[in-house]
Amino acid sequence: MKVMDYIINEIRARKMHMTLIDPAKQSPEEAAKMAKEAYEAGTGAIMIGGSTDLSREKVDETVLKIKEAVPIPIILFPSGAHVISKYADAIYFMSLLNSNSPEYLIRQQMMGAPIIKKLGIEPISMGYIIIEPGMTVGKVGKAELIRRDKPEMAAAYALAAQYFGMQLVYLEAGSGAPEPVPPKMVKVVKDWIDIPLIVGGGIRKAEDARNIVKAGADIIVTGTLVEEVEDIKAAVSEIVKAIKV
Ligand SMILES: CC(C)=CCC/C(C)=C/CC/C(C)=C/CC/C(C)=C/COP(=O)(O)OP(=O)(O)O
Ligand SMILES: O=P(O)(O)OC[C@@H](O)CO
Ligand SMILES: [Mg+2]
Question: Which residues bind sn-glycerol 1-phosphate per the record (predicted)?
Answer without folding.
Answer: 170-176, 201-202, 223-224
